[in-house]
Amino acid sequence: MASTSVHPVADAFSTSGSSGLYDKARPSYPPESLSRIFTAFHQSIENNKKDGGINVLEVGAGTGIFTRLLISPPETTPEIPQINKIIAVEPGPGMREGFSSALTKKNIPVGTTGVNSEEKVQILPGTFDSIPVEDGWADAIVIAQAFHWSHGHYENALKELGRVLKPGAPLVLIWNLEDRSLPDIHPWVPKIRDIYEQFEKGTPQYRLGWWQVIFDLPEFEELYEEVWERYETKRTLSVTVDGVVERILSKSYITALSEEEKAQVEKNIREVMERERKQWDDEGKGVFKYPYETDVYIIWRKSANPHI
């Protein structure tokens, strides 16, 4: 039975997770964003005067796209602190299957039994409001491309995240988003978004900003610092038309459609891509630029020491 705190449309991710589509279609995260996050990790160590490595909790870990960056970050990012344990929490069994498969292919052992197991990386079932670690276990929490799915359960999510997060430690929220703000340069982007976003049908999406209600909740005021940080990174990715289609088909509300509806969405997308102008990287190979924005929010758990 699906958890009542997991949106029913989000359950569709299990299909794209187990099939490998999600991992294939979704982009990783830029070094600039990782630099902000790793800096926050170091600040957590300083705030807690911690010796040795840190414990990182990742909630809504999906197929481990962000997790892999914690293990093998790009050389262009600052040095990441030593990590003792990564607990990845994911409600979808298909996503957990995809997580284990993707990391195993990179020769990264993955455990499934909890914080006391020998494997550095553990993938466990759980939700934003039910996290299988002890109080104050995490030196940092990262939620990549997922926090908006706590819609309707923000109060409980804030309390549970606050329970497992050390005082003076960061709660990091990060999202990749297709950038439709440059229609003169990339005219196809807003047009394809108009095609697929009509199927959102009231599902919580990062772009809608509903999740930002957390900043006005008493649970936030009680547990987290009033001042939080936001960083934005713009970039372009190299992609083909097939890559664009796969990205769209990996979206939860598109995955949840019937096969006939998905086929029509794909047809409409390909028609737009055929006629609209693109910024080519290699026109002969059909490779062009896909504009993206990555947003990072760093929120600090309140400390018993008001000077931290």
From TrEMBL:
Domain PRELI/MSF1: 277-308
InterPro entries: Diverse_substrate_MTase, Methyltransf_11, PRELI/MSF1_dom, SAM-dependent_MTases_sf
Coiled-coil boundaries: none
Record keyword Methyltransferase present: yes
Keyword list, A-Z: Methyltransferase, Transferase
Any one GO BP annotation for this protein: methylation
Any one GO MF annotation of this record: S-adenosylmethionine-dependent methyltransferase activity
Pfam families from the UniProt entry: Methyltransf_11
Family recorded in the similarity comment: Belongs to the methyltransferase superfamily.
UniProt name for this protein: PRELI/MSF1 domain-containing protein
